Each structure stands twice: as C-alpha cells, then as structure tokens.
Amino acid sequence: QVQLVESGGGLVQAGGSLRLSCAASGRTINRHAMGWFRQAPGKEREIVAAISWSGGSTYYADSVKGRFTISRDNAKNTVYLQMNSLKPEDTAVYYCALDQAYYSGTYYQRRASEYDYWGQGTQVTVSS
After folding, report:
1. What Å distances lie between residue 1 and 28, 46, 99, 113, CA to CA?
2. pLDDT value at 103 more than 90
3. Nearest one of 47, 59, 44, 43 to 108, comparing CA atoms
4. Over the stretch 38-96, which tens digit does the pLDDT of each residue have?
5. Alpha carbons 80 and 35: distance in angstroms, whole number
6. What is the CB neighbour count within 10 angstroms for residue 25?
7. CA end-to-end distance (rounded Å), the chain
8. Lower CB count within 10 Å: N or C terminus of the chain?
C-alpha cells in the first residue's frame, strides 16, 4: 500500500514562497510519474504540475508557470513543489499523487483520474 504524506503548507503573504514536500512510503516512486494538484473551496481539483519518473519532463498549469517548480529525488522517495511569488488565488489544499502505471521516462498524465494514490493534502493560504 502506497502512502503519500505532504508537508510544507502554511500561511504566507502575497509574494512569498513555500516549498511543499511529498514523502512516499510503501513503494518506490522510481518509474512512476507524480503530480501536484490543488483544490480551492467550491472549485474542482485542478492540476498544478506533473513530472515524469525520470524528471526529464515536466508540466505546469498556465496559472503557475514561471512561479512554481516541480522536482523529485527518487533516492529519497520524495517529490517537491517550490512555490514562489505566491498570489491569493493560489490559496487551496495541495495534494500530491502517484500514477502507478509504467511509462517512458518522459511521460506523465495531466488528468486527476489517471492518478492512483493521493496524499491527505496540505493547506496553503496566501494573504493579500
């Protein structure tokens, strides 16, 4: 059974930075694409970023492009999301997810329905 545990969320002022971590246990994340998603109150869950298992390919939602960076350390079984220049509209619960399918080192999914394991989420609140 895979467990994903997010950490690093909190309250930050607009323009500030946070670094989210997602630690996996029960399975190595090597050979699995990973994603970060977020869900704001009253809104659907949306993808923020995704990364192939090798780290060679990444995807960013237009709303975070240039501000957020997804990365992974397969040796530590951990995925990160560095969030800079945060805006109030970034306020949401952030979730990491693992896609248990095996892909090439440059492939990832963007749809939440394609991911099989989810963390419990970490709250990010950006004040104006």
Report:
1. 11, 25, 13, 19
2. no
3. 59
4. 999 999 999 999 999 999 999 999 999 999 999 999 999 999 999 999 999 999 999 99
5. 10
6. 12
7. 40
8. N
- pLDDT reading at 104 higher than 90: no
Single-letter amino acid, residue 57:
S
Euclidean distance between CA atoms 39 and 97, whole angstroms: 13
Which residues are paired to 95 by β-bridges? 37
Q: Cα 96 vs. chain centroid, distance in angstroms? A: 4
Place of tokens 């949306």: 46
Q: What is the DSSP letter of 43?
A: S
Residues 32 and 40: their CA atoms lie apart, in Å, by 26
Q: How far apart are CA 95 and CA 36, in angstroms?
A: 6
Q: String of b and e for 46-60 (b: at least 16 CB within 10 Å)? A: ebbbbbbbbbebbbb
